[in-house]
Amino acid sequence: MAHLEVDLVAADRKVWSGEARMVSAPAADGEIGILPGHAPVLAVLHPGAVRITPTDGSVRHVEVGSGFLSVDDDRVTVVVDSAQDGAGAASTR
Fold it and tell me: Which of 65, 82, 70 lies closest to 23, judged by CA?
């Protein structure tokens, strides 16, 4: 089964990295969903929730500040200025 290689990084740390089935994020012009095989894209992100569905089927929610998302060859890179994951770990500015 195809999967995505995902890296979610804030200004000061790596928030999450691994294989995923899907990623959705708050793009400037609306919610963007990424599945394996997605065309290359570069999107500006607004503050909101990034949702990652790892290959184990769980869902991880991370509240992010502004940033960008890049997709190329099933590799998704999300870079944000701040992030707070569901586990409560925080990163600011």
Answer: 70
Per CATH, the number for 4-91 is 2.60.15.10
Count of Cβ atoms closer than 10 Å to residue 40 Cβ? 9
Report whether 54 contacts 21 (CB < 8 A).
yes
pTM of the full predicted structure? 0.89
Task: Say how far apart CA 64 and CA 57 lie, in whole Å.
Answer: 22
- What the block records as the tokens of 62 is 């991370």
**Could you read off the pLDDT of 13-63 as tens digits, one per residue?**
999 999 999 999 999 999 999 999 999 999 999 999 999 999 999 999 999
Q: What is the DSSP letter of 39?
A: P
Q: Following DSSP, what letter does each residue of 9-36 receive, concatenated?
A: EETTEEEEEEEEEEEEEEETTEEEEE-T
Could you give the CA distance from residue 86 to residue 81 in angstroms, rounded to a whole number?
17
**In the block, residue with structure tokens 């409560």:** 88
